[in-house]
């Protein structure tokens, strides 16, 4: 894998279109991308090579629907932190493997945690573990029912 260049890549309209197409179908053949974009196959290949070499495009991946595996319970938890304890709270929450992502936010809630567990019992346990973390003042949790 090549190292990203020090200079940040500046996207033009063709780059944005190409990235948008790849987000829809990361396995699309270069010839199909070229046809859709109305440019030559060589142009698309050169842009892909440049985006990869600069580090602007990190690679290609399969996207799976969040609700594809129905055996998991997924939720989002909004967390209010008391005072200036955010860093300490984040450090403690990072130790919970069921929190798949943790985001700082603006507005009423200070943090948003994404949760994934195998059972309602695990879900209940994780909620309790988060709520007893020193510095967690309040929380609100929503279970994802389906993706639309």
The biggest beta sheet is recorded as: 4 strands, antiparallel
Q: What's the number of extended β-strand segments?
A: 4
Q: Kindly estimate the percentage of residues that lie in beta strands according to DSSP.
A: 15-25%
Low-pLDDT regions: 1-6
Structural class of the helices, strands and pairings?
alpha+beta
How big is the Rg? 21 Å
* Count of helix runs: 5
What integer is the average pLDDT? Answer: 87
> What general outline do the C-alpha atoms trace?
elongated
Calculate the terminal CA-CA distance, rounded to whole Å: 36 Å
Q: Order of helices and strands, N to C?
A: HHHEHEEHE
The percent range for helix content is 25-40%
Strand order of the largest sheet: 2-3-1-4
List the helices and strands and how they pair.
Layout: H1 13-24, H2 30-37, H3 41-54, E1 73-81, H4 86-93, E2 99-104, E3 111-117, H5 120-131, E4 136-143
Antiparallel strand pairs: 1-3, 1-4, 2-3
Helix pairs in contact: 2-3
Commentary on this structure:
The protein has 148 residues and is an alpha+beta fold. The longest helix is centred in the first third of the chain and has 14 residues, at 41-54. 36% of the residues lie in helices and 20% in strands. It is built from 5 helices and 4 strands, in the order αααβαββαβ. The protein has a 4-stranded antiparallel sheet. It is elongated. The two termini are 36 Å apart. A hairpin with a 6-residue loop joins strand 2 (99-104) and strand 3.
